Amino acid sequence: MKKSILSKSVNIALFLAAITGAIHIGHALTLDRIMQYVEVPFHSPRWPANLEGYRIAFITDTHRMSNNALQQVVDELNTRNIDLLLLGGDFWAHYERTLAILANTNTTDGIFGVEGNHDIHIRLFAEMERHGMTPLSNSGKRIHEGFWLAGLEDLWNRNPSIAAATEGADDDFVLLLTHNPDVTMQQDTTGIDLVVSGHTHAGQIRLFGAWAPLFTFTNIVTSYGQRFVSGWATSRDGSPVYVSNGTGSQVPRVFARPQVIILTMHGN
User: Which of 159, 227, 175, 237 is nearest to 199 (CA)?
Assistant: First the structure.
């Protein structure tokens, strides 16, 4: 009798494991290959009133995206009235073709970007400038009166400094662009109104989209567990941090769809 019960339990466990595996493989082969355009409204009383409804697109972690996939992203963004395009790094060795395509995105105020841990910043920044883009490297720029954009060096490869990137911001609304969100737990962010980042790929492989085992049991990608897997989080000092899933990938995604983030800024 005990053997019979044990055998049934094993069979049920194997059946559930097979069903779970099939669901995740199915998701990886279907939805996880379709780009998601995530419209994110952001409200802050510090946002300049004259920039109500300002639209900021964020693309990060393109990695090995094909030319066709990149062009589809550009074509879609060109239908969405984008004021500013931000690039979050990790282009790998594909700077020339990737930036040449992304440079065709129509914006009101240009394209700005930072490096990722897979980038050689000297090569990346030279290519960005060749295409009329502005690299940010522990530096910032006043995009409009009352709006300061800051960007950091990569946390793993160089020496990011939020203080240096925000020098001169005065009392502006400050949007901080960083590849790796972990830096917001290690440096003072009290003067930052919003952080956008990538790097974590939404955990890459997630169980039913809710849990990333790799993040829980290792510090390979982030030192803060599930905190910066995807979407809204907060810095050490309570500043809002939005983490994109990224638009490309090195390996198959499972319940971690590729994303392009579009922020619409509001003053109330």
Answer: 227
- Report pTM: 0.91
Model pLDDT for residues 67-78, shown as the tens digit of each residue: 999 999 999 999
pLDDT digit string, tens, across residues 171-226: 999 999 999 999 999 999 999 999 999 998 776 665 554 556 666 666 788 999 88
Report CA-CA distances (Å) from 4 to 9, 12, 16.
9, 12, 18
Phi, psi for 15 (deg, rounded to 5): -65, -45
Task: Report helix, strand or coil for 154.
Answer: coil
Q: What is the CATH number of the domain that holds 149?
A: 3.60.21.10
Q: What is d(CA 172, CA 156) in angstroms, rounded to the nearest whole number? A: 28
140 three-class SS: strand
Domain count of the chain? Answer: 2
**Domain of 90?**
36-266
Contacts made by residues 167-171, CB under 8 angstroms, sequence distance 24+ = 167/140, 168/140, 168/142, 169/140, 169/142
